[in-house]
Design goal:
The chain is α+β, with helices and mostly antiparallel strands. It has two domains: 135 residues, Up-down Bundle (Four Helix Bundle (Hemerythrin (Met), subunit A)); 121 residues, SCP2 sterol-binding domain (Nonspecific Lipid-transfer Protein, Chain A). Helix content is 40%, strand content 10%. The chain is built from seven helices and five strands; from the N terminus they run αααααββββαβα. The two termini are 24 Å apart.
């Protein structure tokens, strides 16, 4: 179980995004979010934070019937950085007054309030990376935070079909893909993830954990664990960016091996 303080990380990642935006041209295109400018990116991130904050305060126990939220949008583009900072402050106040272990409806695997804090974190972190990439900078992501983000993504992806319809195509006759971080062994945040595609769907293979990290061939420690049909090895940060479509799988920073068609199928249908 990860020991990461997701609420504190939301505040940190939002502050980093706000810092990147303050002196930037708000009309700057964001290549990793086609059609968006930095203003669009900021409006989306702050709107998501405010929406999740409402859900937390309402302690919803079933899917919400409405997504109407008083966003209190700023008068112009120059006001968006401060508006986003206010959204994070409101979220932080909601975190402090919420029992994050309380049962709560969520669209993903974890049916507790903490789901929404963790989800807000990685929504914010990835969009912070989007902004920095748009400004010609290389995003720096804490490795343990990135590993936790990989775990969060792969755990929840099987539940995302209602907004990521391509995931319904992620089926196979017991085909496996292993994602392994290369910048450290397994930690509470995660270090090795085996995805199994079955005729009826897909998901993390929790029956075949690899707590000691993967060996050099992409199998288990020293090559003794279950060998996958395809493997992807990279730093935790690059795995996170890859899974979110922010890093091309042809990048030299990635080590891809095994069934190329299986990997192509995964990346064509796993867009979040």
């Amino acid at each position: 179980m990860t020991t990461i303080d997701h609420g504190a990380a939301v505040a940190t990642e939002t502050a980093r995004l706000v810092a990147a935006l303050r002196d930037a041209d708000p009309t700057t295109p964001v290549p990793t979010c086609p059609g968006w400018t930095l203003t669009d990116l900021t409006r989306h991130t702050g709107s998501v934070q405010r929406w999740f904050t409402v859900l937390l305060r309402q302690r919803i126990q079933q899917p919400p019937r409405s997504r109407e939220v008083d966003l209190r949008l700023p008068a112009g583009p120059d006001g968006y950085p401060a508006w986003l900072a206010e959204a994070a402050a409101e979220a932080g106040a909601a975190f402090a007054e919420t029992d994050l272990d309380a049962p709560m409806w969520a669209w993903g695997a974890d049916q507790h309030a903490r789901f929404w804090v963790r989800r807000m974190l990685f929504e914010t972190l990835v969009h912070r990376a989007d902004a920095e990439l748009a400004l010609g900078r290389t995003p720096v992501i804490d490795p343990e935070l990135a590993a936790d983000g990989v775990s969060e993504f792969l755990t929840n992806l099987p539940f995302a079909a209602f907004f990521a319809p391509g995931t319904a195509e992620l089926r196979g006759a017991d085909r496996t893909i292993r994602f392994t971080r290369t910048d450290g062994g397994a930690t509470p945040a995660g270090g090795d993830w085996l995805i199994r595609l079955r005729p009826d769907g897909f998901g993390l293979d929790l029956a075949s954990p690899d707590p000691d990290g993967a060996g050099p061939d992409g199998a288990g420690p020293g090559g003794t664990g279950p060998e996958a049909d395809a493997t992807v090895r990279a730093s935790a940060a690059d795995l996170l960016l890859l899974l979110y479509g922010r890093l091309d799988r042809a990048s030299a920073r990635l080590d891809l091996r095994g069934d190329e068609e299986l990997l192509a199928h995964w990346f064509a249908n796993s867009a979040f």
